[in-house]
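Re: weekly structure request thread

Next one in the queue (411 aa):
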Amino acid sequence: MPLGVAGVLVWGLWLYRWTLSRGYRPTLNTFRTTTSVVVPSFREDVDVLLACLTTWLDQDPSEVIVVPDLADTAVIDGLSRVRDPRLRVIPFEHRGKRSALGVGIRAARGEVLVLTDSDTRWEPGLLEAVQMPFADITVGAVSTKQNVYQRWSSIWRVVADWIIDLRYYDYVPAMARRGGVICVSGRTAAYRRSVVMSVLPNLEHEFFLGKRCVAGDDGRLTWLVLASGYRTTYQGNARALSMFPTSFRAFCKQRVRWSRNSYRTYLTAAWQGWLWRVPFISKVTVLQILLTPLTMGMALGYLVGSRSEATWASAGLAAAWLMGGRLVRSASHLVRRPLDLFLLPLVTLVVIFVSLPIKANALVTMNKQGWLTRAADRQGADGQTFDTLAPELPAAPVRRPAAAFTGAGRA
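Done, posted below.
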């Protein structure tokens, strides 16, 4: 493999995507319509869910629909004490996250669906901002900007925030400018309800190599929207904060699950021919994600096997080369958070670890289905419970009048 040529191509594509992202601007208009917030909840920490619920209700959605598992009595009891007419709780025996999403989506009445995770908080103005792109009738889905909640409460949350920050500074805006965001992250995503209803059975009943898919709902739904001829975009002024793991073990589990979902989603998109109909920047981003273990593995193998000697000087030069590349690629994040620079060696190692053993493992085990960080016998996700946060007093949801479904806009 001509690694020099491959390196020029990889860096050239990165520079093209970075430059394209610099020209991104969020959509600004007065478009508003009815909104339904749909929240599947499986063994969520009750305190986490109630604190997040406060941030959703504070933004005046038309309704909030929470779909907890039937056996999750702690969450059902906690929600029963919230006296707000906009909140609807639909207990349901979960058969994976997609099944709960289906129940909530069918019960929703708003023109715009806002699907959010049960451990994700909204910053003020999110709901208003995320509606604006739907003034364009060709838009089917809108991604929000996302970060890690209380990032300094764990070193692994800081690392996760660094990685996710770059996604929303250097990758997603570039694809949004062409209307082809390849994954509208399910932590908080907005959809045109009429589009989702037409493809909902394909979300609920997807099979991959003979196995029913229970995870990867956000990637699947994104590509069903793209395949329907709609644009998927991004609203950078709509910001959500999610709980992330505090431990390395849970961090790795989360990355394995995400990588498996990505492989299934993108290989399906290529097989179905959907990939070849999206914008160029979206195509090459998918192909880079799929080929990262191969290209990075060969580059590191060449560096270690062909160009390095067993000396401290050689090891230092190799480390400097790796960290220098990561420093350039992380500029967008470090300009905003310069104190994170001292974590550059750790982040470099983590990116290599995620790109090689984790993604390689995910590739050969991509058809294993499961959540990995949640279990029926545990309340809260692994390393993502309320007691992993810095001490704080969660605000209780307040009672507000129900919003009328007057259809303030056309979606």
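The two ends are 49 Å apart (CA to CA). The longest helix spans residues 280-306.
Next request, please.
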